[in-house]
Design brief:
Layout (H helix, E strand, L loop, with lengths): L5 E7 L6 H9 L6 E8 L5 H9 L5 E6 L4 H11 L4 E4 L11 H11 L5 E2 L4 E3 L5 E3 L9 H5 L10 E3 H7 L13
Length: 180
Amino acid sequence: MDKPLVTICMPLHNYEQYCVETIRSIQMQTLTNYEVYIINDRSTDNSEEVALEAIKDDKRFHLFNVDFGNLSATRNYGLAKGSAPFCVCIDSDDRMGREDFLEILVTALEQDTDIGIAYTGITVMDADGNLGHLNPWPKEYHVEGMINRQNQIPSLCCFRRIAWERQGGYSRYFTHAEDA
């Protein structure tokens, strides 16, 4: 396998019913040069077993068990395991809805070195399984919004490892919007 271009971190906590679909959405990507770290943090259901079964024949996937109880610490741990220049965090109940999701975001970052993060709009699913958009969300980014703790960037985005390192990773203490 070529050196990974993207490190993907997938925190996992009691999502046995969703995690296989999340894993499959990663495996269907047209950009296949990635490494995935599934970080199982204190799951009390069968999340670990279900995830291990889903990744058993895919050497790009690795599963680790931790006892953090903190989403930011879990993400930082998973990203630190990797070495790729681009990073993605995907919650274990999220999906990469298009097969070219990674390819589109990585291409944008490769084409413009001034860009530190790339993301798309999102589609949400309600409790009944109906898909829809958020009027649209995210809207245009504003620094003032972030200062006022308004999360403006979807957690499922692609960013440069160097930016994550310079920031010191996700803040363990910023829990209002820990994926910001």
